[in-house]
Structure formats: C-alpha cells, structure tokens
Fold these 2 entries.
Entry 1:
Amino acid sequence: MKRARTYFSTHKRMATTAAALLILMIGIASLASLAVAADPVSFITVLPSANGTVTVSPDPVLSGDNATCTITPNSGHHFVSFGVDGETTTTVAGAVAGTRSYIFTSVTASHSVNATFAIDTFKVGVGPSTNCTISPNTTETVNWNSNSSTYTITPDTGYHFVSATDNSVVVTTTVPGSVAGTREYVVKNVVADHTIAAASAINTYTLTYNHGVGGSVVGTSPQTVDYGSSGTTVTATAVAPYHFVKWSDNNSTVAARRETSVTASLDTTATFGLDTYTIVPTAGPNGAISPSTVQTVEHGSSSETFTITPASGYHLVAATDGTATLTTVDGVVAGTKQYRFTNVTANHEIAVTFALDAPADPGNVTFARVTGGTLIQWTTAANATGYQIFLNGALVGTGGATTTSLFLGQYIGPKTIVSVQAVGTGGSSPWVTAIYAGGSEVKLGSFKFSGNSTKLTTAMKRTLRGYASTVAAQGFSSLRIDGYTATGGTYAGRKKVSLARAKAVKAYLDSQFKSRGAAVGISAVGKGSANPVGSNKSKSGRAKNQRVEVIIR
C-alpha cells in the first residue's frame, strides 16, 4: 500500500514539470515572433576617458537613425583626440565652447568610442623692469591651477625696491627675500598667461652735521644726497677760548670736510675743547713726583693732583713753580705730600727737592722664649745704619744695618721691658718697646733624685728658690713639672714615683710663688721611665734618669 502511494506522488511531480516546460517554450516562440516584427537597435559603448567625458544621444540607436557623441574636457583641460572602434577619427567643434562632437549617421551596428584630454598650460615670463633684475629671467610653462617658480627681485646697487606688477597690476611681494634687500613673488593658481615686472628707485641719504659747545658748523646741514653722489663742504669753526678737536664719526681732526661717493647716511658732531696749557713736573734726587710726565690742562680747569714721594729715609724740602714756592699738603700715604694747580690759565712747572731723614722706627719688635734663652726680633727701619737693644733701659746689644734679631742666653718674661732703637746718619729713632710673644716650651732647669726618693734636699730647694725668683721676676705665668725614673720595678710603680717627685717640686714652688705674690699655674706630670737622658744599662745612666725637669710654658 505504501509503495502504491509513492508511485502516484512521483508521477504527479513529473506531470507538473512537463507542463511548465511546455508553457516556457510557447512564451519564447511568442517573443521571437515579436522581435521579428520590431525595428532592430544598436549600442554606442563609451570607453573610460581621463580628464573629460563622452556622452551619446540617443543610446541605444534604432537601426538607420543618427547618434551624436558630445566630448567635454574637465576644467583646466582640453581635447586631444577621439577614437571610434579603436581608430582616431575627425571631430568637429561642439555647440558649447570647449566641447567637441562626433555624429554617427544611419547607424546599423554597435560601436565603441573613446576620447583623450590634456591639462591646459600657460606662459609666465618677465617683462621690462627699472633699476632691478628679476630672476629667473626666462619664460616658463605652468600647468593649469599650479604655482609658478619663485621670482627674486634684486634692486641694482644703490637702489631700493619700489613695486612689482603682474600683468600690469601691482602685487604684494614677500619681504624680505631670501637674500637681504631682495623681494620674492610667486604666481599662484595659474589659469592664464602672466608677465612680471618690477621697479626700483635710487637710495637717498641724509648728511647731518652737529656741533658741541665752543663752536659751530659753517655750511648746509642736513643735506640730502643720492647714492654715489657728493655733498657740499662744511667747516667746524671754534670760538675763543675753544679750539676744534675732532669729528665724532671718524675722529678726524680736519675741520673742513665734504662727503664723496655717499653710500650711507651720516650723523656726526664737531667737538670743541677749551684751550690747553702744560704743567711740567721735575723731581730732584732721592724722591719722585707723580704724575711725572708733562700734563695738559684745559683753560680754567684744575690739574691732576701731584703726589710727591721722598725716597726711603728722605723728606721733601721744597716744591717750586719757577721762583714761587708752592704750599703742599700731606698726602693720603704717610710721608707723601700733594699739590694741585687750580683755574689754570698759563703754563706752569712744579720742581721738588729732597733731604735725608733721621732713621724710622724699627718695626714689629717682639721677643720670645727659645731653647737656651730669648730671641729679640724686629724689621729694618728706613735710613738706619744700625740698632741698639735695651733691657729695662740698659744697653745689652747692638746690630748692623741689616741685623734683625739678637739672641740673649737668658729667659726674659713679660715683666722685662725690651726696647730697640734705630740709629743712622740723620739721628736716632725713639726706643720701640718690644711685644712679648711667649714662645715655645723651654726647660728652665732640672735636678736628680737618688734611688726611688721623692723628697727634696736642701740643695734642691735652693735651686727651686732660684727658679721661683726668675719666674716671678720675669712674669712667666705657667710651668709644668715633669717627673722621671730609671727603669726597674713595675710600670705603675715608676709612674707613681715620678708623679710623687713632680708633685713634691710643685708643692714647694707653689709656696715660693705665694710668698712672692706671683700667680703662676703649675701642673705636675709623672712620666715614669719615658724620655731617658742616659742609658738604663749603666749605673751612671740610670742616675741621670732619676730626675725632675721644670718647663716654662
């Protein structure tokens, strides 16, 4: 039963398809009969064309009718050629300016057409110019709507740019050009021919002659002069008591001048100066005058200040102007004199003479402790032939002209008055009191202890009283007592003994200074077996190391 249904369904579809095919065949036959009955048509195919268009009317074309092809260039372009079925053919002018047309007559077949176009070009060139050049000076071809080259306008030497024209119309140029003094111009978006021209005018310059106080300028000022031309003569003329000095622009001292071959403006001033006089300075031996050269002074003015400086050991005797004695004043620097001429209206001289001085004071006089005594020092004094040294008014030594120190084999403290006096041909200087400069630590003296003893003997006390007397008399203010031992025993034991010795000496000296009313600071130091002065390998050497040293600080 199932197979029977499938059979009838399949045959039904086949019958439907056959009916459709029969209807299609009938329709095609009908169309064919209609085509035979209508007029045939042809097609004009336009191939792609750049920079222009081709239109066909009518299209399609009934057999035997005409068809017109209109050829139109794009803006800025023009027609070049037209092709029909691949072959170039003749065209005729179109009805609209710039177009072309081609007519197919009695068309019986289809055709293909194409057209070619080219961009329009224009000429840009340079026309006659006045007193200048335009570069490049050639005619160039420029495509439609493009820019020309850059044209550089260069005025002739001595001229300046006035104007530029493009087709006789004044145009704006680039200021400045790439080179100083030039202009530049570019024709932009060219759609026609152009001619560029330019004009320049000669430069003119102003000559201005001014004058300062004391005179005038005779002649024309200001003057206007063309490039390369000459001005007229002007003369700087002074009035008394002035004289012409120079022109400010070139420092020329020639009063009359005329500018020739002018290439720039000028603004100058004639300067005048008051009449001048000379002052001649001279100095005798053993001194100097500054300034030492001949001085020039304007009428009614004052001279420079002359400084008179005697040589070392000399002094000014007199300053004269001819037979007149000049009154000098003390100079800024000690020992010098000064003089100045005022309201000068004539020539002058200043002559100075000098005489030997008494010796100057010795300088930087000091005294200080050194090993073994005291060193007295000073710096040399001008005009000195020797020196005398005094302690509390008593002469203790002398020195020659170049001597600057004296060593005394005794310790001198600040209570002693030390003086140095310079002596020379012209006399003697005052006594100069020396300044106490302290000095290095020095050993006032030392004495020995026996064995490990720390007690002071009568002889030790006598020695210490002598030390106390010296220290108090000289005004020393600080002592240090260094105690020592020989080697042997322990380190701590040696330190203990040496310190005990130093303290014993300190205690005795403290009492001595107290009784003398002297304020002296004393420190006690135990140094053990340090700093030996003898060999600890021998008995005599060890004995030397059992000691106390008194140090002035």
Entry 2:
Amino acid sequence: MSAVVARVHSSLGLVLGVAALVSCSHRAGTQEESDALGGGAGTRNTGSGGVQSAGAGSNSGGASGAGVSGSTSLGGATPGGSGGAALTGGTGPMPPGQGGSATGGGGGAAGAAGATNGAIPATCQGAFTKVALDGARSTLTVDRASSLGELPHFWTTYGIGHMALFRQEEKDWGKTLKAHVIDGVQNLGLKSIRAHGLFHDDLAMYREESGTPVYDFTRSDEIFDFLVKQGVAPIVELASMPAALAKNPSQVWSLWKMGISPPKDYKRWQELVFKFVEHSVQRYGAEAVAKWYFEVWNEPECCGGQFWKGTLDDYFQLYDYAAAGVLAALPTARVGGPVASQPVELTQNTEVGKKFLQHVTTDNYVKPGTPGHLDVFMFHTWNFVDGSVNGYFAGLDLLDSFGLKSTPVAVTEFGPTWEFNLKDEPQENEHGAAFVAQTYADIAQRCARDKKRFPIAYAWWTLSDIFKEDNYREGDPFIGAMGLISRENIRKPAYNAYKFLAQMGDEQVALTAMGSGIGGMAARDANGGVQVLVYNGQSPGKGPVDHKFYTVADAQDIALTVSGLTADLPYDVSAYRVDATHGNAYAVWQTQGRPAMTAMSDANWTALRDAMDAKAEPMAQSQCGSAYTGRFSLASPGVLFLKLTPTPAKSMTR
C-alpha cells in the first residue's frame, strides 16, 4: 500500500443550538476527565485550539485539540470517570520492552448530575450554542429517547499471539506483554484474550516417560494465574500438538515450531485436554472456568496444511475428542470450532464450516451415530470490510440453515489484512482505527435492525506487538505488526478506537447517517449520558486481495444532532478524533522521515508519545437543552467520538 498522505484538516466545528433555552445560574466550570494514559486524572495538554462554550465558568488550563477553531479551552477539576492504567515511560529512546510500565492512573469521582451525599447538584450554565448546519456534506441524527435494545460489548476480546510470550525474558518482553494486558483491562474494557500454543512444548505441559503420559502445569499456571488475577476469562485455544503425542513430530509450523501433526492416539489427546481443564477447575474453581471458552485448534483448513497436516475428517475427530475431554472435566464448559481462516472458507473452497456442521449435527467420533457437541461457532474474518461485516452474517446464515438459530458466533481473529511488514501496515495507522469503528458499528446497527444475534466475541489480532511471527521490521519503532500497542508502549490509532468503544453505554439508540462513506452507532448509559461513534471510510477496497483499504480524502463537514435529551439536565460535551493528524503517532513518525530505532532521538520519542492519544476537544460545559447539534470536520479514514455526560455534582468538601 502506498504511503498515507498526512493531511491538514479543517477545524472541528462549534456546538449548535437547542430547542429550549434554560435560565441558569453561574458556577465554576468543570472539565472532561483526562484521556491521556500517560498521566493521572485531570492531566491536560495545553495549547491553542480549544472551543468557546457559552456560559462556561473558567477558561483556563483545558485540553485543546489541534485544528479546533474559535478557541478558549475549558478549565477546572476532573470530576468524572475512573482513572486507568498509564503506560508511563521516559521521553528518551527506549529499547524494546523497556518503554514503560503499567501503573494505575488517577481516580475520578463518578456521578451524574443531581445530589449525592455531601454534594451540590450541578446547575446549567447556559443553553447549547447555536451554529448553522447548512452546507454540511453529511448528516447524522441520534435519538437518545429511542431504544434499539441492549448493546453487548462484543469488542472486549483481544488476540495475544503465542502464549509462551508471557514468559519471555528477552528484553523483559514477557513483563511488557503483561503490562499491555493490564492496560487493556483498565482502559479498553478487555475481558478476554485468546492465544496460540497452549500445548506447545515450550510450556512443557505434556511428556511421556516409558510410554506413560506425564503432565506438568507449572509454566501454564504462571500465565493463567496472571490472567485470572486480572479478571480475564480467556478463550482457550486447544492447540499445538506436543511432540510426544504427535503422529509425526517433525510436522511443525516453521515460525515458532507449532506442532501441526494429528495425534498418534486420540484418546490420549482427549486425556490431555481433560487433565488441563480438570486442573484449571481445581485451581480456579468451576465458576471461573465456566466463563471461559474452549476453541479446538486454529485454522485447520488454511493454506495447504500450514496449521494442520491432517484431513478435515481428522480435524473433526480431533474436535470430538477434545470436546469430550473438556466436558468430562466440566459439564458446563463451552466448546467451539471449526476456527476457519476466512468467511469464504465456511461455504466455499474447503467448505470447512458446512462440512463441520454436517458432522457435528449428525455424528461423533467418540460416540458414533450420535450428534456431537457445539456451544459456539468460531471462525475468523480476514478480509477487509466485506469480510469483517458481511462475513459475520454469512456465518449466522450458515448456522441458521442447519437449524442452529440460537448458537452464537465468536470471531476469534480479525483485522484489515493478514499481511505483515507492509510499508504502511493498516493496523498501525488511521486505516486500522476507521476499520475498527466501521466493523463494530455496522454489525451493531445491522443486528439491531434485522433482529440478528450479536457476536459473543469479535477479537482484534493482536493487542500487542510482543509477537512471535518473524515477518516484521525489527529495526523500526513501528515493525509492521498488528498490535494496538508497540513494544516501546506507543499506542497506535486503533487503540484509540477501542478506547472509545470501551466508553459506549449498554443500550443502543437510533443513529441515522446520510452521506457517502459515513456511518456509526450511538448508545446511552444508565446515568443519562450519550456516546456517539462515527467513522469516515471512503471507498473501501478489498484489503489483502487488492492491497487497497480506504481512500484517503480531505476532511468533510458532518452535521450531527442528538435529540431526546433531558432539557434541564446540564451536560459536559467532548469530542475526540483519530485521523492523519489526531491521535496518530504513526503519522508523526512518517513526518520524521521514518527513522530507525538507532536513529530515534529523545525529541522523536517525545513527539510520538505526545501524538499517540486522541485528545479531548471540549465542546460544552454544564449546558442544557432538549437537543444538541454540532458541526464536525473529519477526514477519511477517520473516527469521531462524541460524549455527552451529565455534569457531575460538586462536592461540598473543601
């Protein structure tokens, strides 16, 4: 893919008027909480470009977003939201794995407007400012008073790569990977991870002595103890055949020696699975392990035997014996397959999805003549927007055709491309951020509209650049890999998109978009807040098929209206953007001339860290009305996130 051209975008527009004016008393202004992970609550990056808000109290010290016109930034204390983990680090060059550590961010005081113990209810400081919407190229309308039903947060699972990386001592990368998981838990809403290589020989779980199986969970316990402590309920990939159990131990995947042979004895394979699940139940409790999912193998049909040297029938036998082992240890456990590499493989080419369902609904290698067991249908959607969105619904349609109309889907890998080391890897730049927003928004909108079941998981591959597949640029700060966070703790644009998703409410409300390439979704929360996620993704290509992603286009004006607000409830309103000039460390690295690690100066690293977070652009503070309207400028590819949060009550404590 050709280099993405950084573009200077026109300014983020001012907020517009409301249907009813509210007479309000003056009070000291408060400010949206800091979203910069590098500091505690209340941290702000100062500069020109804030937004003048009618009736604002204090006008000092606020966050300012570059490119915002008519600026006076809002000041005040940080009243709301919880502090997250901060990946702290110095401003100088940091070798891999030494760019920082996960620490707790400052805590914010939660609360909606209205009296709480020892607090003064927030009061309006004026009506939402009125600004003309005429001439905007695109229009979005959100109705807070509507309800499209529950909005499951199906974006809280992340891929990790090779599981043994949690133990990697080289450059302390194992510690860095754990720090990235903690960051994900605290800032991205991470609830689950999925990794390769549970039964790989580097974890030494299985061996044979004089032909007798011996099990050792010492190394895997170290990893799962960490995950359970963080509240993570993993999707456990039951894969990599131990050499001692392999029919042909020489059959391995070259990059990290994953065993890809069928087992020499399927009953011993079943016992291995049983022993791991039994041990997990004994160590963590049945209640905890029942929240996990067990996924049998990875992409068995893919790439001419790259990940599985057996036939599809051999895989179905592997699946049946694995499911029997899981359920023997924990009858309430949840098991799934066939983990196809792309949606097209479900019904075309290898037809692994169709053949798998034909098998599991009619036969079982463990108990021949009886149906097998399937709790969740698992596959991957490696193909740009068409695969990531339409591919999900193709999986649902296939399930429905077999009468499995309540069986859920878990997409356990997805991304804009499966290719590493592109000159401009879309996972590392603004294309990845827009792709994240579009995938989840389009699926959520379509599920609500067509009354389809939501995914139970839709996992980005991967959370971290601590990753053991060697097709990347070792000498660069951005290595051409797929992580949301680099090895030096630089957060990429897609990280910001996931941070926006983590703040979405649990009830979807109606969003209507008019304009080419513009879309999104909206939600409300129990405290009266509204969250709007918008993407601009012009003319998407076919990703890895034609090496085209989104068309790069100058910013366009978007007119956005949020109706159905409580007219006398004061709101704080903030906008955030990710595009070529906002929340984008990769774009800054490009402007630096793409220096190698050895050429990165202290100033280079500081510039990347200053640019990596999407900064809050305050739009209104303690303002009221039954409708909020705003005019926003967003480039392609790009993401806009708008938060309307009831102004918190003011503490009486001095």
